[in-house]
Structure formats: C-alpha cells, structure tokens
UniProtKB/TrEMBL annotation:
The protein's name in its UniProt record: Methyltransferase type 11 domain-containing protein
SUPFAM superfamilies: S-adenosyl-L-methionine-dependent methyltransferases
Alphabetical list of Pfam families matching this protein: Methyltransf_11
PANTHER family (alphabetical): OS01G0589200 PROTEIN
Coiled coil feature spans: none
Cited CDD domains: AdoMet_MTases
Superkingdom of the organism of origin: Eukaryota
Start and end residues of each Methyltransferase type domain: 39-134
Signal peptide coordinates: none
Amino acid sequence: MAGLFSKQAAVYAAARPVYPKDLFTKLAALTAHHRLAWDVGTGSGQAAISLAEHYDSVVATDVSEEQLLHATIHSKVRYLHTPDAMPGEDLVAMLGGEGSVDLITVAEAAHWFDLPAFYDIARRVLRKPGGVIAIWGYNYRVSPVEDMMTRFFNTTLPYRDPRTWLCMNGYKDLPFPFDDIGLGREGEPASLDIDHEMSFEGLIGMLRSVAAVTTAKQQGVDLLGEREVKELEEEWGGASLVRKVTFKAFLLVGTPRAED
C-alpha cells in the first residue's frame, strides 16, 4: 500500500478535497474528553489539522514516509511513520498506552488496513468509556459529474486492488465492530456531503492520485493520456471551468462495546 501512494504523494496532497469543518465539530462533541486524537492513514495530514482545532494534541500516523513529507506542519500535530511490520505493542506505547485516545479518525484509508489488527489496537487505546472511532471515505459518486466519473473509474477496473471495492461500495461491506452512536453503523453508513470547488486541473490531479491509475502506469498503461484527458475536458466543460461539486461520502462512527 505505501508504495502505491509514495509515487504520487505530492499530487495526492494537492488534489484531494477538504473535509467539512462541521464534521470535526460533530465528532469532537461526541467525546467526553479532548486530550488526544489519533488520525490513522493521515496522508498529507488534512484531517489531522482539523482535529487540532478541537484536541490538545493529535498523533497522525501513516505507513508512507513520502506522504508524511508532504504533510502540513502544525504545532499540535505529531506525525509518525508506522511501518507495516511495526508490533502492536510498540504502536500502543507510541500513542500513550491503553485508554489514552479520545478520538480515532480514518479518512479514505480504512479499506487498505489489516482491519482485525487495527481494530484490536483501536479498542486498546480508546478511552473507556467515552472514546469514539470515526471512519469515512468517498468514491466516484461526485455530483453533478457522477456519470463522467463512473465512465473513468470503469477504465480502472483491470488495475484495481480488491481492497478498494470496499470503498467503491460505500463501506457498506466494511466490518465495523463498534456500538452505534447515531452517525452510521456497520452495514449502514451515514451520508456525508463534501462540497468542493474544483478546477479541471484539480480533477486531473485527483484522478492521477488514484491507486489504480498508478498501478496501470507501472504496467505500461496510461489511463490519463492526451486523448483521455481531452475527452474529460470536453465533458467537464472546458479546461478553464471551475465547478462546484459534492463528493457523496459515507461515514461510520462508533464506540467500543462493553465487552471489548
């Protein structure tokens, strides 16, 4: 996974939409304390920076060192590289020990995780009671250009990692073994609209940051060659057009079960 995103880290950091501030306000209102948040798979730190407005400190981790090099610096955010082979005990200690985390967030990354291992650590480090875990993502459902996005994503099918189908299906099949607190539950994610002003250049940048596009490129296939970009430009309405779009995202929020 780390290799897929290392090759396009700068593009990823510049192209992805900004998560709504009221999402973080809602999540912060759910936690009993506001001492520590953990943003997992932080990438360029977009969610971590927003969490810093609500928590005393934020630990933001990622398996990709290259992604972290492009993360936004903030005095309350501590970025840490967590290799795939890092022992769970070390990670728990790095986060401050069991019961030390008020909120865990995972933005557009959970489908890449070893979920049983991650959830085991999440249950250990979340404060009990009062700790909250929130996972969200988005896919090709972008209004009002969903048809165009669907046609493009269909070209990526031969190069998709099987894990990305969890995201393509809106996390409806993503395991989420936590108690429901009213913002999406296992099998029934809540809807989350992410409004974004996007240029055509931004659209192409976002598409270039898709893992399947990188995989195709490694296999000698350019899914965003000159002809493909020209077709997208025509559908978009011109290279100079900036459009207001809405990513139709999906959200799961829960708290550790009493028996955990």
